[in-house]
Each structure stands twice: as structure tokens, then as C-alpha cells.
Amino acid sequence: MAKKFKVPSKKQPFFKIVKAFFKLFYFSNVKVTYLCNKEEIPDKCIMVANHSAKSGPMALEIYLPTFNVKWGAYQMLGNYKSRFKYLRDVFYIQKCGWSKTKATIKASLEAIFSKMLYKGMKFVPTYPDGRLTLTIKNSIEILDDNKAILVFPEDSNDGYKEIVTSFFSGFILLSEQYYKKYQEDLPIYPIYFHLKKKRIVVGKPLFIQKLIEKGMKRTEIVELFCNEVNNLFLNHIKLA
After folding, report:
1. Reduced to 3 states, what is the DSSP secondary structure of residue 123?
2. Fewest Cβ atoms nearer than 10 Å: which of 6, 104, 116, 235?
3. Which residues, 6 or more positions from 35, have their beta carbon under 8 angstroms from its beta carbon?
4. Are 61 and 193 in contact (CB under 8 A)?
5. Is residue 122 left, alpha or beta, with left meaning phi > 0 and alpha meaning psi from -120 to 50?
6. Would you say 104 and 88 are in contact if contact means Cβ atoms under 8 Å apart?
């Protein structure tokens, strides 16, 4: 019998220490710019951001004002072997271009504690197949509990790029399914994080149903969000 999904809790006393460590030694003095009204960002919303290799999820965990549950590769929430193989073969070799020897050493160590970090940052697993419906179902429960969902939808199969080339459409499906169930068009906030410049920019929200009413197709909406995220970098970080 499948284990019943439990919505992640905001209570995480031990992980606050971990976050403080990362903020002090890896993500100190990050400046956050809000193009939207920070005080008006609701607890229940969807956010989409670039991944910035490994740095994005933790930086956003530290600096975003809204508690959020993140989508992440299902392998990273599996057992040690699953985490090790994903880190070595996908993240370090495929996406970062490392040698097998270097990737093996790094992955073997990182896979030991990575699941703890993933759980602390409140990740839920995503899948590249029909099991994505489970991610959508669980995410709707999270939204129902008045918590935000943070998605990293960039296609990073060829590596992480400063200018994101394309997005996957899972976050659009989540918005559509939530609207279908509750007739509520949730705000979706585009976000960009740049590690070297220590900048986070949170853009103004867009609403899927309003875009559909304008005649936009799903592929066009996905491209629009990708462009919105890139424009946060081009207009507010690169030239700063």
C-alpha cells in the first residue's frame, strides 16, 4: 500500500541551523529585488526560477520571504544508490561536463548527506513520465494547505546556462489542474538568481487563465515564462 502523502511542515528547527551555515559561508550578502509588491506575495502561489546549477534552491530557500515546497528530481529523494547515480551520471557528467573519476568522488560523498538537505528544503519528487500526475496531486494538497510551490522548469539536459534556453511545462499543468478543481487562477512569480553577482530578482506575477483568455497556447505560455525569467537577468542583474 502506498504511503499517504504528508504536506511538508514549516517547522524545521534543526534545518534553521543548516540554513544559517549556508547563508554565512556560501550565500552571504545576497541582494533581493522585488519588482512586485513583496508584502502582497501570498502564501499560496506558484514560483518559477532558474536552477543556477546547485546554488539556486538553497539561495532561494534562504532569501525568499514565502515558505515554499520545491519540485526536484525523484532520484535525489531515493536511496543512496539512486542519489549517487543521479549526481554522478546526470548532474556532474552530463550537466556539468566533469570527468567520470572526478564525478564519482564528488557524488559518492555528496550522496551521503544530500537527502537530508533535500528534505530540509522541502522537496517533493518529480518524474519524466506518467508519475508526474502524482506530483501534481501532491502539489495541489500543498497549495490547499496555503503553501507555495517553487519549480525549476529549465531544460538543463545540456547543462545550466546563464540564459535559460527553454522550460518544461509541468508548472503550467499544475496551474491548470488547480484552476480546474477550484476555479482559482493562482499567481505565478518569475524569479532569477545569479550566484556571482549575488542577486535575486522576483518579478511581477502572471496568471495562466488570463493568458489563455488572450488566446495564448500552452507552448506560447511556457516560452513567455522562460523569457520573463531571462529578462529579470538581462534587465536587472546583467546591467547592474
Report:
1. strand
2. 6
3. 201, 202, 203, 204, 232, 236
4. no
5. left
6. yes
How far is it, in rounded angstroms, from Cα 131 to Cα 196?
A: 36
Q: Is 235 exposed, middle or buried (0-12, 13-18, 19+ CB in 10 A)?
A: middle
The cell for 56 is 539556486
**How far apart are the C-alpha atoms of 54 and 58, rounded to whole Å?**
8
pLDDT in tens, 99-129: 999 999 999 999 999 989 999 999 999 999 9
pLDDT in tens, 12-58: 888 999 999 999 999 999 999 999 999 999 999 999 999 999 999 99
Q: How high is the pLDDT of residue 2?
A: 57
**pLDDT at 179 exceeding the cut of 50:** yes
pLDDT digits (tens, 9 = 90+) for 52-104: 999 999 999 999 999 999 999 999 999 999 999 999 999 999 999 999 999 99
Tell me how far apart the alpha carbons of residues 19 and 193 are, in angstroms, rounded to a whole number: 17
pTM above the 0.90 mark?
yes
Long-range contacts of 51-57, Cβ-Cβ distance < 8 Å, separation of 24 or more? 51/152, 51/154, 51/156, 51/160, 52/160, 52/193, 52/194, 52/195, 53/95, 53/96, 53/160, 53/195, 54/91, 55/26, 55/27, 55/193, 55/195, 56/152, 56/193, 57/121, 57/123, 57/150, 57/152
Place of cell 529523494: 77
